[in-house]
Amino acid sequence: MLEEIQEREEIIERVAALDIGKAELVSCVRVPGAAGKSRRVQEVTTYKTMTRSLLLMADRFAELGVSRVVMEATSDYWKPVFYVLEAAGFETWLVNAKDVKHLPGRPKTDRLDAVWLCKVAERQMLRPSFVPPEQIRVLRDLTRYRWDQVAIRTAERQRVEKLLEDAQIKLSAVVSDIFGVSGRDMLEALLAGQRDPTVLAQFARGRMRGKITDLEEAFTGRFDEHHAFLLEKMLTRIDMVTADIADLEARIDAELVPFEEVVERLDEIPGVGRTAAAVIISEIGVDMSRFPTAGHLCSWARFSPGIKESAGRKKGNAATGHGNAYLARVLGEAAVVAGKTDTFLGERYRRIARRRGKKKAIVAVGRSILIITWHLLSDPDARYRDLGSHYYDAHQSSATRRRQHVRQLEALGYKVTLEPAA
Question: Which of 37, 63, 158, 364 is the S-S candidate for 33 at Cβ 3.0 to 4.6 Å?
């Protein structure tokens, strides 16, 4: 039975492809040949990646009537080229290098790479990668840098804990957060020269005062001037990074002003706060026309199981693959937080975690959050409505519930015989 499929087989008449390096790039332009001839002609040129050379290249593309420019995602070298051509009004495509691999045995040079990419592009055998608009790119730079700074601060705090362990100060064994108000006062007292465990323990506040005896035991160590020198440097570094994070958060809030309504709607999803909403917006944007369905978005983010089938048999563990690391982190954190709530997503997390483990539960709930996000961004009037933690029980058939109860009793060692009530 013949099946009709929607594909465009026509060749793009005027297309350019770029093989980009740090200092220079190779451009290949393919256009129709002379009138009445089917053969196409191409022009291969090398340009420097300086702005003036890029502008000359853009002028040459305009002169040749190029309608689409395709380039590989090579490190960050593609960005200035992409932005210049985008500003010049060209349809600019960034493609995944995995989609443009050379055939085995072919020679490989920058010139041949550009020609190969151009030939593949003119036959429309490539898919463009998602590149957000400029306003979203600015927000993305800020949120990613904030994430990096938080990681730096976390690493520095871990160094402080290791330093205290080296000095036989077991503060982290008694206090859950040694950088809280009480913990920080104790560390400052150590720097000021105080070594008496009894005096140091008295800096405890609130509920921590119930651990005075344990704190005195924890501060019995050999903290010397060497440790004090390193601790001062580490705490100074932590304070500097904390100040930088505060500045970044203020700038992120300023960039989020045009998307405030979107942030409020995403904030209604369990596990997603304002910070997570900012990261989600910066990574996927607010225009969902780029993703026709929620499934397309999940597939792009690698939150959909992989498919590997041969001879009618599925192979492998259907891994999701590697996607956007920043988006995956925030969705994973949101899924864990949602798993602690009395909501539909919380119950979904707990049900999957019991059967298949926490890792699969995180991916499944993260995918659910991404699907909810797509619907909220696709429809400006949509609002999140929680189905409730009782949703599964309310929509579960009596036969399924009966089967589950029987299995639970049999697991406890009982032999179960069911008899309907009169």
Answer: 37
Contact 45, 60 (CB under 8 A): yes
pLDDT at 395: 77
- Measured CA to CA, the distance from residue 102 to residue 130 in angstroms comes to 23
Pick the closest to residue 391 from 334, 339, 343, 340 (CA basis). 343
Q: Indicate the SS3 state at residue 229.
A: helix
From CA 33, how far away is CA 10, in angstroms rounded?
Answer: 16
Q: Which residue in 38, 61, 36, 58 sits closest to 49, CA to CA?
A: 58
Question: Quick one: pLDDT at residue 281?
Answer: 95
For residue 127 the two structure tokens come to 């898919």
Print the domain residue range for 140. Answer: 136-255
The count of domains in the chain is: 3
**Tens digit of pLDDT for each residue in 179-199?**
999 999 999 999 998 899 999
Q: What's the gap between Cα 353 and its chain centre?
A: 22
Q: Which regions in the chain score pLDDT beneath 70? A: 1-10, 36-38, 99, 101-105, 306-308, 310-312, 314-321, 422
User: Looking at the domain assignment, is residue 130 inside a domain?
Assistant: no
**Which residues make beta-bridge pairs with 47?**
25
Angstrom CA distances, 53 to 25, 26, 230, stand at: 10, 12, 50
Euclidean distance between CA atoms 186 and 218, whole angstroms = 12
Do 105 and 156 reside in the same domain of the chain?
A: no
DSSP 8-state class, residue 130: P
Q: What is the rounded distance in angstroms from the CA atom of residue 259 to the CA atom of residue 376?
A: 13
Q: Do strands 313-314 and 40-48 pair parallel, antiparallel, or not at all (unpaired)?
A: unpaired
Query: How many angstroms separate the most distant Cα atoms in the chain?
Result: 96
